[in-house]
Design goal:
The protein has about 230 residues and is α/β, with parallel strands linked by helices. The chain has 7 helices and 14 strands. The strands form 5 sheets. A 4-stranded mixed beta sheet has the order 4-5-6-8, covered by helices on one side. It starts with 12 loop residues before the first strand and ends with a strand.
Amino acid sequence: MSGAGRAWVRIADMIRDVSGRVAVIALFLLAPTVMAESRSADPTQAAAEHLQIESVRVGNGRHWMLYLDGYIEPGADRRLARFVDQQGIAQADVYFNSPGGSLLAGMSIGRFLRARGFDTHVGARSPDAERPADGICYSACPFAYAGGVQRTLRQGSVLGVHRARNRAPVTDEEAFERRVQLDASRYLVEMSVNPAMVGFMQAVPPGGIRVLTRDEALGFRLVNAGIAGGR
């Protein structure tokens, strides 16, 4: 990394420990167990090893619905970019239904969606592809969702957060936590989301999820286009 202020936009980040030895650390917001005050995730979602990507052409054929379902693995951002380019998708509403995964991939997806001008929602594919069902967006997923230009939350869908956990041991846990907070905060500012959400996340253990209330999601500006009705 060239400076402490650069956000992690790659799957791996090079972190030097106190002895100068370089370790490759892949940062994950792991799919959690939902806390008592939160709604439980569908366990079949956590079982998915890869983010499933599906497109549906709607209206006059120039607009698309993109369904992103399952675990956000390292490399999901690159797969999504290839898929969008191969399909020639220029306008899209993106629906997330994910228990989380890689924070780095989530932020990279968010930046990609913002660069393309796509809007985001939380919802799952239903038998009627043009009428999404309710969905969940936990852990790293809200960071990907934050990339939408307009971000809507359906009445029955939920956003949930928790503290980051690294998949590999780190030599300085406090330094790791500070770095995560700094990079996540700067990313949220980049997406016009209140970085106070990071402090909120820090109070939630990595093994749990705190579902955001409607007022919290709106207050953090994570949702910026209101609460939409369900089916």
